[in-house]
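Section: Multi-chain targets

For targets with more than one molecule, the full set of components is provided together so that the structure can be written out for the assembly as a whole rather than chain by chain. Components appear in the order listed by the source. The example entry contains two components.
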Amino acid sequence: MKSITRQKPLEEITQQLEGLHRLYLVGCGTCATMTKTGGKEEVLAMKERLQGAGKMITGWTVIPTACDTMTEASLAENNGAIQSADCFLVMSCALGVQKIASYNGKPAIPALDTLFIGVEDSPGYFHEVCDQCGHCVLGYTAGICPITACHKGLMNGPCGGTNNGKCEIDKNRDCAWTLIYNRLKEQGRLDLMKKYQPPRNSQIVPRPRVAKVA
Amino acid sequence: MKQGFREALKSGKFIITSEIGPPKGTNLDKMRHHIEILKDRVDGINVTDHQSSVMRFPSLGGCLEIKEHDGEPILQMTCRDRNQMALQADLLLAYTRGIRNVLCLTGDAVPVGDHKHAKGVFEFDSVQLLRAIKQMESGKDMGGNDLEGAVEFCAGAIVTPEAKPIEPQLIKFEKKIEAGAEFIQTQAIYDLDNFARFMKSARQYPVKILAGIVLLVSAKMAKYMNENVPGIFVPQNLIDELAGAPKGQALNKGIEIAGRMIKTIKDENLCDGVHIMAIGREEVVPDILAVAGLNGHV
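Its structure, encoded as tokens over all components, is:
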């Protein structure tokens, strides 16, 4: 499972960098490396592009996992280059950006948009697996999530937009409820689909979401 | 005062409903004109709810206009744009203004419409909305609180008889009936043999079924729908019939086809009635009814 990201257009990146000239670039060795959005190669390419746009790059690094507790230690090794920078430009998912934003008070500017939490189906193709809705229904839906796999997040079966097993918004995407139906049928568990599912609770953990684990 | 829609359903007569689409803007002249044409010819007039996810004058506003013209509105309500609080509030308003019929729909996806960056709500689905109405009828809101004055609606839903695969659709159809749907308006049907097969299994349920009749205005439109509209299948013989119409006569041919289908559905007692969707050409609905031999129906 990975945090799936996409690079922002250069125009948006430079807009965010208005008034910030000296940059320290941070990539991530985990998800953003796998999605080719913030690995070493992409960080070096970004360095070139920003230098071309008139920015000064004081240094760069690719942290093994930008969101974990080792991030601080990893950054500390580069404190010289970081101190002389106006800000971080972070090429990781939003978890890494937030981690780095709390490092030393210097602004952390995201170079990526975080799209979803997904898995890789085939090289380069990812699909969302979990919306972290707080109430898992996979036990009723043959292990296929109707919240993420159905465009409308429907709980009681397909909408009228389903067409030959595909979704109304894109003929190349599967209709989640056709997949669920097919798998439940194979399992001899279609009764589960006939059962009424009540509306979801949107406030299981009200935002901002926090939890204390035992 | 003419008969209400629920009474018409219970009377056992062949039911005819039609629908209007509110305008994008505040000029209601055309909509009012369509209401005038339809109100004494059909048993109920649906008002679409931002159909195809295109932002328009609201369905509830259209229904109020129908009431003001002494017609019988059917409030189409999708779950796309409102959370449960807004849906319930609109139902309260509708009830106090004499609107007694609601068609519960999931709603089209936002990206197919004209506000492509808008948030699709879909907190409820059509089955949950039907159940919410039942709960409000019992005097409780969806938070479990007492209502000071309950609602009472004749609630309905839709089904797509041409959906492929049909089985998941039928499971949801059953859920809608269990949730209290009293009537079902179908997506457009054109192949009456397919429809008769669908009705064979649908007949067993205690619900009135109105066959969806969408007016075809050209062979091009029929082909477009076959390629782009989920759950619609226009057989080749009808496309050929439209294509063979003399120049400028395709609309008349479409009227003839729609009227002929309605007549067959009625004569062969295929289902309980029809729902005519003329999609912006509501002024020809009387012509369709005339072909069907149903002018002066109500």
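Chain A has a mean pLDDT of 96.
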